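Running log. JK asked me to keep both predictions on one page so they can be read side by side. First protein, sequence followed by its tokens:
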Amino acid sequence: MHDFLLAKEIIDELKKIVVEKNIKRVKNVSLEIGTISLAHDGHPEHTEDISVENLEFGLKNIAKNTPFEETVLKIKKVKGESWKITEIKV
């Protein structure tokens, strides 16, 4: 479930970026994903390791009927407690 919520957060962030930069089509997006804080309260017991497979599934489903439907998503697991978009290719 948390993987799907993260997928929505990522797609929402991508939507903001394409509007800000007036991008019409995105070919590739590279992401780095660490251990995600579920409650965003800083307690180590409230973290979960995100499943890349589940995240990819969520991203593909949320991206339907958006400018990202055909976008290739590259996900890299990293150490740390957050996620970030590292590259967008148009």
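And the second, directly underneath as requested:
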Amino acid sequence: MNTKLTLKLDQSVIEQAKEYAVSHKRSLSKIIETYLKSLVNKDEMNELQISPFVKNMSTGVNIPADLDYKTEYANRLNEKYK
């Protein structure tokens, strides 16, 4: 359901926003609605809690940047199947 909203903004901001909307082929109402939805969604995302299971998955181990994972994997397989 669409509801009317009245805002008081600086005239130059309104003009620039209208130009932006025209240049991007979108209505100013839709741009503002999208922006407000993004604000609400950010607040909802901040309220999400990380489950203990996911927290336990973090090992806290730092992996060296120069690690050759293919060699490490091959070494593990060689050890496993000796």
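Observation for JK regarding the second prediction: Residues 10-50 form one domain.
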